[in-house]
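Minutes, project check-in
Item: structure for the 422-residue chain
Input as provided by the requester:
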Amino acid sequence: MKVAYINQPFEYISHQFQGSSIWIQTFQVMRALADRPVDFVVYAPHFADQTATEAHGNLHYRRFSTRLDETLAKPVRFLEKIAGYPRPKKPFYASRWHYNTYIHQIARDLRSQQVDIVTIFNYSQFAPIIRAYNPHVHIILHMTCDWLGQLDPGTIDRRLESVDLVLGCSHHVTNLVVNRFPHHAHKSKTLYNGVSLEAFTNQAHKPQGETNPEGKRLLFVGRISPEKGLHTLLQAFEIVAQQDPYVQLDIVGSPGSAPYEFMVLVSDDPLVKALARFYQGRFKRSDYFQQLQNLLSADTRSRVNFAGSFPHHEVVKYYQQADILINPSLTEAFGISLVEAMASKIPAIVTRVGGMVEIVSDEVTGRVVQPENPAELASAILNLLASESKREAMGAAGYQRAANTFTWQHISDQLWDYYQNL
């Protein structure tokens, strides 16, 4: 069997470095399937410091330039912004012209690779083009966001005709397809993201009963962007800090607001729509990171650590130091930090949003609260900070759930079954 993965046209894909959650998942699944009779071809954009082709055992990289696509897209996106996004459900990034050269190069190359299965991540417009060049290949559309439930339904429906299997990274994502396009329900399945238990538990966690001399530590891991709800977390932390003079908050992730049209424009959720307040002007620029800084009082500023971004393996140390993981997102297809917290044996507090409620069981492996509610979030934090035994019990339950459901071996076995069925 030969399987190809078509990565998003803006992602830096390297054999030596796994940065994004999609590439981490893809790389780990391919490793877990190393003992199966399968070869992989990974298609990705070609950056200046990379070779066009590269091979590592049964894994082959083939990279294509996106320079022309990006040059052509600039004036179109500029005009779209000037016009105030006149077609919110048909933005340019979701059109068949977006990265059209990139996908045509890949589609032509696929014909010479004799591939059996092709997986496309998120960009549904790629599917009909792959099908046109490769009529007999099996196409999987793997969704890690909500776009199929948000973009123009007629357009999405036509594209799904070219797809043999739609994989959602959570039942939440899968159900967006099933409920909106019931005639495609038979080819819509779920494949969770996974976690390496060994990577997150091979370092010594705080021994049972040991108290951090610097106080309890709260942790957020993710992009610093409005939809991640960090404004709510900081408001809640102000309340928590008044009750606990030693508690600290680590925020691990790089500043970089998601494009307005990716999140706010296409969403029908009023809470997500309200995030427009963090995007200013006709061009919808966001200084979200600076706005977060302004939320901090002088008393709490020194207790919030914006740690920045790190290679994935270096983030482990923050989990090992943490007492509670918090994800206050307003939209979340899955939430990779939640299973990483489980592997680290710490409880998670999450909002009742998207796929997160499938991962965290309220009062079992963590707490589930309403989004955009600082008081409720602060109460949940204080409740867990006050009970070490509860945190340890939730951490143990979370670890067991991760071991039963979210290991890479479990995920890859499920994916292999999907391949076999195709």
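Outcome recorded: The two ends are 11 Å apart (CA to CA).
No further action items on this chain.
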